[in-house]
Amino acid sequence: MSWLFGSSPAKDAPTPAEPQTQPAQTEKPKPCCVCKDEKTARDDCMLFSKSDDPAKECQSMIEKYKICMAGFGFKV
């Protein structure tokens, strides 16, 4: 009953109900914000291809884009 007489837990001590904060880790960038040049080159190749199989014609650009995205931790 000590809480009735004005004693209170230390203000700086976390209570069990309070979540513990973790140190900020480097945040992963959004996929739309990385590999912009590779994406543009890939898209231009696919859109403006005169080939019957644009994916085959643009395979090197597609691979460059995939490698770039993998470098940022994205699986395409």
How would you describe what is shown here?
By secondary structure, the protein is mainly alpha-helical. The protein has a domain of 38 residues. Helix content is 38%, strand content 0%. It has 3 helices and no strands. The protein is elongated. The protein starts with 35 loop residues before the first helix and ends in a 5-residue tail after the last helix.
Distance between the termini: 61 Å
Envelope shape: elongated
Per DSSP E runs of 2 or more residues, the count of β-strands stands at 0
Would you identify the regions where 5 or more consecutive residues have pLDDT less than 50? Answer: none
Secondary structure: helix percent: 25-40%
Number of helices: 3
Decide which structural class fits the backbone.
mainly alpha
Largest sheet: none
Order of helices and strands: HHH
Q: Please state roughly what percent of the residues sit in beta strands, choosing from under 5%, 5-15%, 15-25%, 25-35%, 35-45% or over 45%.
A: under 5%
Report Rg: 27 Å
Q: How confident overall, as mean pLDDT? A: 82
Quick structural summary:
By secondary structure, the chain is mainly α. The protein contains three helices and no strands. It has a domain at 39-76.
